[in-house]
Amino acid sequence: MKKKPTRKQHYVPQVYLKGFSNCGNMINAYWSDNNGIIKEKCVPIESICREKYLYELKNDSDELIAVNYIEKCLSVIEGKFSGYRNILLKKAFNEGNQKTKCFFSAEEKAFWILYIGIQMLRTPNVLNEAKSFSRECFGKYLSGNLSDNIAISQCLPFLKEMESGEQNCLLSFIKPMLEMSIALGVDSKGRIITSDNPVYPFSSDKTIENFEEIVFPINDQLVIFLFGGDLKEKRGKNKLLILNDENVDSLIKLIACPDRKMIFSKQPLSDKYRQLIKLARNDKADDDKK
User: Fold this and answer.
1) Contacts of 260 (CB under 8 A, 6+ apart)
2) Distance between CA 85 and CA 83 in Å, rounded?
3) Can you tell me the distance from the alpha carbon of 59 to that of 143, in angstroms, rounded to the nearest whole number?
């Protein structure tokens, strides 16, 4: 009996989005353009951030192979998310941890770097770019489906055990991240929001080898920062950061960048944050014109 594939596969995990939900199954969703928010609706978490057969591989006959294998591997990692998030929640609101010089354990840092790296690579935009590149490289020798399979396997290399010295896209992302310092930002007022592409990397030379900062909201109260380059020393290592109003405003503007189509918030967005989102998108549009 053939395995039945999961038809609609989530590229932002439901367990992640529940951290931005009041009830656990519904979330405030906002669609925006350069003029600000153009549509808003409270929607089921299950219904968003998903695409048909996103992680499935196909043979030359367009038949699915290794059905649900990558999807199940991702679900194992997602299954650990809540536990690691709960650890951070317990530590974040313990006043004694505000002065600690080693907030994240080595195990916690390793998990979050792996999780963030996978989240960056599992989105439709990245997978489609990888497929296009793979077809350019192998199109003369392989069918489109087989070229696509190579791209997916490079971004999400779960199909076989890695051999010594072997390289793939995930390792290329994770290696520079391991050298970055890590910090946890905390907003006790629960104002942090997220989007349909929830990792925000910055590199002035546009290369993954020189990540200067990576921002990843975990829920409405917590956000992980990774610092590289000059920021590694300026921002401090492995610490807890209490976010003030200005810090939160900067986060809102970052998350509202035009590369993201949808924004998600636990609480309905205030007029102030709606204006910040509009300003952030207008600023980016003006920069693109220059």
Assistant:
1) 195, 196, 197
2) 5
3) 9
Residues contacting residue 288 through CB under 8 Å, at least 6 positions apart = none
User: CA angle at residue 120 from 137 to 89, to 5 degrees?
Assistant: 165
131 three-class SS? helix
262 pLDDT band (50/70/90 cuts)?
A: very high
What is the C-alpha to C-alpha distance for residues 282 and 257, in angstroms, rounded to an integer?
A: 9
Amino acid identity of residue 147, one-letter, is: S
Interacting residues of 138 by C-beta distance below 8 A, sequence separation 6+? 146, 147, 150
Length of the chain: 290
pLDDT score at 100 = 83
Supply the DSSP string of 229-249, one letter for each residue. Answer: TTHHHHS-SSEEEE--HHHHH
Going 84 to 89 to 92 to 96, the CA torsion angle's sign is negative
The three-class DSSP label of residue 25 is coil
pLDDT tens column, 66-99: 999 999 999 999 999 999 999 999 999 988 887 7
By percentage, how much of the chain surpasses pLDDT 70?
96
* Per-residue DSSP letter, 110: H
Assess whether pLDDT exceeds 90 at residue 101.
Answer: no
CA 196 to chain centre: 8
CA-derived radius of gyration, the chain: 20
pLDDT for position 206: 86
Measured distance CA(175)–CA(132) in Å, rounded? 24
Contact (CB, 8 A) for 195 and 189 = no
Taking residues 132-148, report their average pLDDT: 93
Angstrom CA distances, 14 to 48, 195, 221, stand at 9, 13, 18
